[in-house]
Each structure stands twice: as C-alpha cells, then as structure tokens.
C-alpha cells in the first residue's frame, strides 16, 4: 500500500493536507490491501462502504481548507472498541447488538478526522497472547502466516505489519499491545493508566487495561497517542492533559539516560528465556551504550505484584462476559470468569489497596534508573493453533511461560513501549520493552525514536511488502 507502507501515518496526514493524495485514494488502497491479504485474518469486519463515504466527506472538508491531525487517514481499531452501527463481540459468540454510539477512542479518532476502515481480530476477552477464537477465526503473522501475530491485539498488529493500514489501535491489559508489536516488528505503546479513555468502560478490567497505538515507527505511534489521549469525566482514572504533544517527544533527543537491563520475572512466573531473545535484548543494550546512555544490570523488586493482577483480570473477564447477551464462550474463558465471580471479587479490594505499596516497592528502581529495558516476551511467536483444544490450566501455564514480562506494568499502571529488537534465525521478529515510571511516556518515546534512528527498523517489512511491485 503506497500510502500506508511508504508514507506512514504522519506522511499520509501531511500528503493529504498538501493535496498530494486524496482520502479516497488512501482508503481504496487500504481496502484493496485488506482484500488481497484476507487470508491473514487481520480484520473481523471491514467497513467498506462506510469508509468510502467517509473518504468522500473528508476530501470535501480538505478541499474547503479544513485541517485536522488525521483528516482523511484510514486507521483500524480492535474489536473490543465500540463503533456505532457495528457489533462488539470481543471474539465471544453471543446475541450481539450493534453499538448505538462510538466509544471514546473512536470518537477521538473521528474528531481528528480519521476514517475507521474496520475492526480487527482478537481472542476471547483479550485473555491470551494469540488472536484466535472458534467463532471469529485466527489472525496470522505477516512475517510467516504459520505463526500468530500475538494477542490480544494481534489483528491490529497484523494489519499494520502487512501494510493494510499505517497504524491501528489496540488495548493492553497484560501486554496485549506490546506482545503483538514484538512478534510483528512494530512499535507498540502502552500508555499510563488514565491517559486514554475507554468510555463507556470507565474502569476496564479494574485498571489493568489501557488503549494505545501500534505503528511501524515511533513518530506515527506518538501522533496516534496524541489523538487518543484525554480523560472522560466518568473515568475512574483521570489525568491532566499533557503539556507537550508526544510527537514533540519523538523529535527531541532524550539526553543521557540511566537504563537498567533486567531479565528477572515476577515471583512465581517461569524465568526460562529463549537464548535468541536474550541475545537480541543484550544487543539493544549495547546499542544504547553506544548512543551514550549509562546501561547496567539491575532488577525491579516485584514483590507480590501478582496479587494485583489475578483479581483484576478475572473479575474483568466475568464482568465483560456477563454483559454479553446470550454469551457462548470457550470453556477456558468461562473458567476464568468463574474464578472472577468467586475468588476474584473477594480479593479485588485487597488488590487495589496494595497499589501504593507495590508502586513504592517496584518504583525504587527509578532511584537509580530512568528506564528499565527487558525482553517483551520470553519466547518467539507461537504457532497458530498451538493452544487449540487446550483446557484452562494448560493454556494459562503455556502463555504465562511465553509472556512473563509485560503484565507487571499493567498492575502498576505505568507506561511501556515495545521496540523491534531483531529477528530469530527463522526470520520472526523479536521485541524489547522500554519501561518507564509514572506518566513518563515522553522519555520512552524520545528514547525509542533515538533507537529507531540508529536501528532503522521502520524500513524492515514482510516479504510481500518489499516486492518491486509494491
């Protein structure tokens, strides 16, 4: 896709504003790319005619001199996000009704002029690091379709990595933006809790889940985060508006930072790390040293951080599942919900009371470091169908071993950014996490942009996108 792959989100917006391309042209290229790569299963629903109508309207507005950050730019959203006129199954079979109103994420996209071309594939209620469900199919990795793009925002990641759209929105409750970004070679930003409103969900998954961008480069991700940022008056967690746009952070040097490199996982979680991933993260650490940063080994003290995850997550699954009329989930999803209805609800008040203690305990790392560098996942991408037919216990233990690094920052509510870190010998992407302190997305974005300039990852694309015909 000429607009999405070559221009990117920032480039598309600029080209539209200068009249070098039309919204109709970008939307048609986007729709053609989605149709041509339908076998990747990136989209649950494509808004073909609606997107075309919105493109015509955008071109009219552009012609009349109107300018907005994303006016006429096609984007995608994950299928946990309400789009008026579309259902929001979140991969659970049920008696779904079309949403009457846009969710706040989509409202902000429209307010910025963006065109939502479709809703992307996920797994049931975002539970797993793969994007597969019995009722809604499987998303596949553009780098090798035998493998998953990750989850639960895997459809959004596949859409961006395959060049169907320049950027997409995902959500992250235990790594669900950062994991698919790692496994598809993208930048994925998990913002600070409260940075992006999920209204009508005022406390999604009891503070675990936040919405954020997936993009090929840092500037595009920062622009999309700027568009999405802002609290709703009914949100449980609210933040003041940022003083400086994140796109400005992507343009400035980060200065000399103290970066702690950690391979430690939280207590009770498997610490077995694939040697190729360890080597990739160590290589990134050396690159950061070459860029002038003070890089050293140091581990956060996670303590009993897991006590903050399980009640929030299980209760969140129960609440979402109970809100679906006629829900017909997988057995393993129902088991998670049952845990939430029984044990989770009793422990949730304690989990929330632990927040200040956990933030103080883990936050001591920031007395000696500005950023923590870790692997994003412990294993490379899994095969599509790897957990087909598995029960709750086998699935839970398997995915915990594959992805033990991301979820701690969801409990804390702090920001994290996945950056591409290289490839396995089989040509599958590897990611590394830059983890920050409270509300410090700007430092992470600035550092990621500096690293991107040195690494050049934005030019690496799956084979089809590198074809001379493209």
UniProtKB/TrEMBL annotation:
Gene Ontology MF, one: amidase activity
Any Pfam family matching the protein: Amidase
Enzyme class: hydrolase
Residue stretches spanning the membrane: none
Enzyme Commission number(s) from the entry: 3.5.1.4
InterPro entries, sorted: Amidase, Amidase_CS, Amidase_dom, AS_sf
UniProt keyword terms in alphabetical order: Hydrolase
Limits of the Amidase domain: 25-444
NCBIfam families reported in the protein's UniProt record: PRK06061.1 (NF004717)
PANTHER family hit by this protein: GLUTAMYL-TRNA(GLN) AMIDOTRANSFERASE SUBUNIT A, MITOCHONDRIAL, TRANSAMIDASE
Stated family: Belongs to the amidase family.
Protein name (Swiss-Prot/TrEMBL): Amidase
